[in-house]
Write a structure and sequence with these properties.
It contains 22 helices and 24 strands. By secondary structure, the protein is an alpha/beta fold. A hairpin with a 3-residue loop joins strand 13 and strand 14. Helix 5 crosses helix 6, helix 10 packs across helix 18 and helix 11 packs across helix 18.
C-alpha cells in the first residue's frame, strides 16, 4: 500500500520515474545513495557493499552508497562501464517538518563530463549527434569542457563512409542517434539513443536561434544545412535535459565543410597510424607521438586536431611553415619558451568551468598564475616577427582580471567551496565585519589551552574540536580528578576525559555562528567573482587558442631541429619529388640503427610507380613514408627529407595489409575489395594513392588480374590519373 511507504521512498520513486535508464545518485546527508536495481548495478560496477533500507513495514530494498566528497572517482568508473549517472541534490532549506526538497541537477554521461580528474587532458571529450536522411547526414559535435561547438552536412553517395571517417577523426566519447534510425554496425562510438522528436525541424530551428541568440540561421552559417540544424537542435535538447547548469555556457559555434581540409577515410587513418598505433591504441609509435613536444594541455589537443586535419590552403600552410622556420632557427628562444609554456594550466577548460558554474577555488588560483605568466611569455616573443604577430596580438593582456584575482582570492584557498578561507581579508566589507565581530571569540579560544594549563597546573590539558561535541577541554584520566569545579564532564574515553565550561560554550556559539555567516558571504562573493571573470570568457579563450597554436608551432620547430627535418616546398601544380626521405616514426623508434633514405620522384606525365622487392625488404615502410611526408607538409610541419617538392594533395588513400571483418560477414578479400572500390569511387586527379599488394586475398591468377585491371584503370581513365604508388 502506498500509504505504508516512507515519504523519502515516495520522493525517490517520483524522481527515479523521470530517469528510468539512468543510475540515480540520491543525496542523503554526506552520502549519495542508490536503490533497487541501481544499487545492484552500482555495487557490482564499483565493488562496494550492497546493504538494504526499510521503506515500509516489513519491506527492505537494496541500497549502496558512496561518500559525496569522493563522488567524482566513482562516477568516472561508472561512466567507463557505460552507465549514465543522475546527480540528485538536496536543494533549498529543510522545512520545519518533512523532507529536504530534492531534484536532479545534472546527468553525467561520457560526452558531458566536466570534472577535471575525469577528462583526458591531451584530447577533446566530444559529444556528437547524427541525423541521417536518405544519402545525406547532419553531424554536430560539442566539447562541453571547452565550449567548442561545430556542425557540418554530409551529402555523398557514400555518406556512411564520410560519416565513419569524421567519427574516426573526432573520436567522440558519446554519439547521439535517433531511436527511429538504424546506423550501419561499423559506425564507431559509444551510442546513446534519443527520441526521434528531438530532431523535429521546427523545434530544432527555434532551439538553435534561442540558444545562440540569433534571429536567423544565416548568421550561424546554417541556412542551407537543414540536416545539420536538426543535429544541432537535438544535441542542444539533450544538453538541456541532462545539464541544468549549462544554460549560461558560451559555446563558440562554427560550421565547416569537408572541403576545408584533407578528408582521410577511417581505413587510411588506421593504416597510417596517425594518432595511435594499431597494436595498442597509444600515441607512442604514431605520427602524433613523433610530432608532439607540446607543453600545454590545450596545445596537445590542438596538435591532435592538426594531425587529423591536413590543410588544403597553400597560404595557411605557408603561414604555419613560416612560424615553424622562425622557431627552427632560434634555438635559444625555444629553450626559454618551453619551460614557460610548461608552467601554464588548461586555460580552455578553466574557462569552461567558469562558464558552467563548476569552477573550484583551485581553478581561480591556476587562472591567476596564468595571467601572471602571460606578460612574461609575450615579452619573450619578438613583436616585429611577421610569422608570430597575429598570435601575440590574440594572447592579449589582462591587468584588470589579474588585479581582481589578486585582491579577491587568498594565495592558498581550500580545495572546495565547502570550507572557508577563499576570500582575501579586505576585499568584502560584509566579510570583514563578520570576521572582526568574531575575532575576540576566536582569539579567546585560541589562547584557552595555555591559560587553563597555567591556571590549573595540569600539563596534559588540551583544547580540541569535533563536529559532534564542538569545542572541548581534554584531560588525561590520571589527572581528571584535578579538574576545576566549573568543568562539566561531557565524554569519557579510554585514556581521557572531556569537559566543557559555560564560558567555552558561549564563545563556541559566537565562533560557529560567525563561521556559518562567513561561509554564506564567502560563497556569495566567490560566485560574484566567478561571474565577473566569466564575462571575459571570449578573450580568455582567444588567448588559450593563441597559446595552443604557439605551443604546436614551437613543437614542430623543436622536432624539426632535433630530427634534422627540412622545410617542404608546396605548389598548386601536380607533382611529387622527395629526395632522401625517411619514415618519421621508424627513424625515431630505431634510433640505434642508421635509416637508409629513399627518393620518390614522379616525372611530368608519370601516374603510377610500381614498387617491387622480396618480403621484408621495406616496401610497406617506403609507401607509408611517402604518405606521411606529404601529410606532415600539409599539416604545416617540416619533413624528414633532404628536399621535398609537393604538389598540393586533396586526399590520400591507402590500401595496406590484410584484415577481415567476420562480425559483419566480410572476408579478408571482401574487405579488400570494398576498400579498393571506395578508393576508385572517391579519388581525384589531385589524390595520392598507396596500394599494397592488391588482390592477395584471393588466388594468384585472380589477384594478378585484379591488380592489373586497377593499375590500368588508374593510369588510363581520362578523368582520374591520381599519383599512385603500387607495391606488388
Amino acid at each position: 500500500m502506498t500509504q505504508d511507504i516512507t515519504p523519502l521512498r515516495l520522493q525517490y520513486l517520483d524522481i527515479k520515474k523521470q530517469y528510468p535508464d539512468t543510475i540515480v545518485f540520491f543525496r542523503l546527508g554526506d552520502f549519495y545513495e542508490t536503490f533497487d536495481d541501481d544499487a545492484k548495478a552500482t555495487s557490482e560496477a564499483l565493488d562496494i557493499v550492497l546493504t538494504s533500507r526499510p521503506v515500509a513495514k516489513g519491506v527492505r530494498v537494496p541500497m549502496a552508497g558512496i561518500p559525496f566528497h569522493a563522488v567524482d572517482n566513482y562516477i568516472g568508473r561508472l561512466i567507463e562501464k557505460g552507465h549514465h549517472v543522475a546527480i540528485c541534490e538536496q536543494v533549498g532549506d529543510q522545512p520545519d517538518k518533512g523532507l529536504f526538497p530534492r531534484e536532479v541537477v545534472r546527468v553525467v554521461t561520457p560526452g558531458t563530463v566536466v570534472e577535471p580528474n575525469l577528462l583526458p587532458s591531451g584530447r577533446n571529450n566530444y559529444l556528437a549527434c547524427i541525423f541521417t536522411q536518405q544519402n545525406s547526414a547532419g553531424l554536430a559535435y560539442v566539447d562541453v569542457s571547452t565550449g567548442e561547438f561545430a556542425a557540418t552536412e554530409l551529402t555523398d553517395q557514400d555518406v556512411f563512409v564520410q560519416l565513419r571517417a569524421e567519427l574516426r577523426r573526432l573520436s567522440p566519447a558519446e554519439v547521439l542517434v535517433s531511436d527511429a534510425v538504424s546506423l550501419p554496425g561499423d559506425i564507431d562510438g559509444n551510442q546513446t539513443v534519443i527520441p526521434n522528436w528531438y530532431f523535429e525541424p521546427g523545434r530544432s530551428q527555434e532551439l538553435v536561434k534561442t540558444r545562440f541568440q540569433v534571429s536567423s540561421l544565416e548568421g550561424l552559417g546554417l541556412k542551407s544545412l537543414p540536416l545539420a540544424v536538426r543535429a544541432v537542435g537535438a544535441l542542444l535538447k539533450y544538453l538541456q535535459e541532462t545539464q541544468k547548469g549549462l544554460s549560461e555556457v558560451q559555446f563558440s559555434f562554427s560550421t565547416y565543410s569537408l572541403n576545408d581540409f584533407m578528408v582521410l577515410d577511417a581505413e587510411t587513418r588506421r593504416n597510417l597510424e596517425l594518432t595511435e598505433t594499431l597494436r595498442d591504441n597509444k600515441p607512442e609509435g604514431s605520427l602524433l607521438g613523433v610530432l608532439d613536444r607540446t607543453k600545454t594541455p590545450m596545445g596537445k589537443r590542438m596538435l591532435r586536431a592538426w594531425v587529423n586535419k591536413p590543410l588544403l590552403d597553400l597560404e595557411q600552410i605557408n603561414a604555419r611553415l613560416d612560424a615553424v622556420e622562425f622557431f627552427y632557427k632560434n634555438g635559444v628562444l625555444r629553450q626559454n619558451l618551453e619551460p614557460m609554456l610548461g608552467e601554464l594550466h588548461d586555460l580552455e577548460r578553466i574557462v569552461g568551468r567558469l562558464n558552467n558554474g563548476s569552477a573550484r577555488p583551485g581553478d581561480l588560483v591556476a587562472l591567476r598564475e596564468d595571467l601572471r605568466a602571460i606578460p612574461r611569455l609575450k615579452a619573450l616573443l619578438p613583436a616585429s616577427e611577421p610569422a608570430l604577430q597575429s598570435l601575440v596580438n590574440a594572447i592579449g593582456s589582462y591587468d584588470p582580471q589579474l588585479a581582481l584575482l589578486e585582491q579577491a582570492i587568498t594565495e592558498d584557498p581550500p580545495a572546495t567551496t565547502a570550507n572557508i578561507g577563499i576570500i582575501q581579508p579586505g576585499y568584502s566589507d560584509d566579510l570583514d565585519a563578520i570576521l572582526a565581530s568574531s575575532r575576540h571569540a576566536r582569539e579567546w579560544i585560541a589562547g584557552l589551552e595555555s591559560a587553563e594549563r597555567q591556571r590549573t597546573g595540569i600539563k596534559t590539558l588540551k583544547v580540541g574540536f569535533n563536529k559532534v561535541f564542538g569545542y572541548y577541554i581534554e584531560i588525561s584520566r590520571g589527572m581528571a580528578d584535578q579538574a576545576p569545579d566549573n568543568y562539566i564532564r561531557k565524554q569519557t574515553l579510554v585514556n581521557n576525559e572531556r569537559f566543557i565550561t559555560p564560558e567555552l560554550k558561549e564563545y563556541e556559539s559566537l565562533v560557529l555562528n560567525a563561521e556559518t555567516q562567513i561561509h554564506e558571504v564567502e560563497l556569495r562573493v566567490y560566485k560574484q567573482v566567478c561571474s565577473q571573470l566569466a564575462l571575459n570568457s571570449p578573450d580568455f579563450l582567444s588567448a588559450a587558442h593563441a597559446i595552443a597554436s604557439l605551443d604546436c608551432l614551437l613543437s614542430f620547430g623543436s622536432v624539426a631541429a632535433l630530427n634534422k627535418y627540412t622545410r617542404p616546398q608546396l605548389t598548386a601544380e601536380k607533382g611529387l619529388k622527395i629526395i632522401a626521405g625517411r619514415h618519421p616514426v621508424v627513424e625515431r623508434m630505431r634510433s640505434e640503427t642508421r635509416y637508409i633514405p629513399n627518393d620518390v620522384i614522379f616525372e611530368e606525365g608519370e601516374i603510377v610507380r610500381l614498387i617491387t622487392g622480396p618480403n621484408m625488404s621495406g616496401k610497406s615502410t617506403y609507401l607509408r613514408q611517402v604518405v606521411l611526408i606529404v601529410l606532415m607538409a600539409q599539416i604545416g610541419s617540416f619533413v624528414p627529407a633532404d628536399q621535398a617538392e609537393i604538389g598540393l594533395v586533396d586526399r590520400v588513400f591507402t590500401r595496406i595489409g590484410a584484415q577481415d571483418a567476420i562480425h559483419q560477414g566480410q572476408s579478408t578479400f571482401m574487405v579488400e575489395m570494398l576498400e579498393t572500390a571506395n578508393i576508385l569511387n572517391n579519388a581525384s586527379p589531385r589524390s595520392l594513392l598507396i596500394l599494397d599488394e592488391i588482390g592477395r586475398g584471393t588466388s594468384t591468377y585472380d589477384g594478378l588480374s585484379i591488380a592489373w585491371a586497377i593499375v590500368e584503370h588508374l593510369h588510363s581513365h581520362p578523368k582520374l590519373k591520381p599519383l599512385t604508388l603500387f607495391a606488388t
